[in-house]
Design a protein that fits this description.
This protein has 135 residues and is α+β, with helices and mostly antiparallel strands. It has one domain: Immunoglobulin-like, CATH 2.60.40.10. The strands form 2 sheets. Strands 3, 4, 5, 6, 8 and 9 form a 6-stranded antiparallel β-sheet that branches. A 3-stranded antiparallel β-sheet has the order 1-2-7. The radius of gyration is 18 Å and the shape is globular.
Length: 135
């Protein structure tokens, strides 16, 4: 009985860890940095909807810096984003300018990850992210 209970707990734990780590498993909407736009002060990101349904997104995003084997979220200085929802139509692509310096200061050399959230029509939120390097 103890072995069965332990197996169930371990299986559930593995499922929860895998679910938390799978930030880019969402395939309906992708995010990338537009070529030639990345600098220590900002970038243009491209959101692409690969599905036949609409999604909404806001201006807000977060940036994390890789430190060893983990990610540390950068602190946002005087951070405020407009809270209105933009529509990303079916099979549509949109470019967004992100001014890192305004919210996080000039980024130092390192590996970073920018994460945005998009919402489905049923209001389910999905996170999408893109990694980049500042040399």
């Amino acid at each position: 009985m103890k072995k069965i209970l332990l197996s169930i707990v371990l299986l559930f734990s593995a499922f929860m860890i895998t679910g938390c780590m799978g930030i880019n498993e969402f395939k309906d909407v992708s995010i990338e940095i537009k070529e030639g736009t990345l600098s220590a002060t900002g970038a243009t990101i491209v959101l692409t909807n690969h599905s036949n349904q609409e999604y909404t997104y806001g201006e807000e995003y977060k940036i994390e810096k890789k430190e060893g084997f983990s990610w540390k979220e950068l602190t946002c200085e005087d951070c405020w984003f407009n809270s209105y929802a933009n529509i990303l139509g079916a099979n549509e692509e949109v470019e967004l300018d992100c001014n890192f310096e305004s919210y996080f200061g000039k980024l130092e050399k390192g590996t970073y990850r920018l994460t945005k959230s998009v919402r489905q029509e049923d209001n389910t939120e999905k996170n999408i992210s893109v990694e980049f390097v500042i040399d």
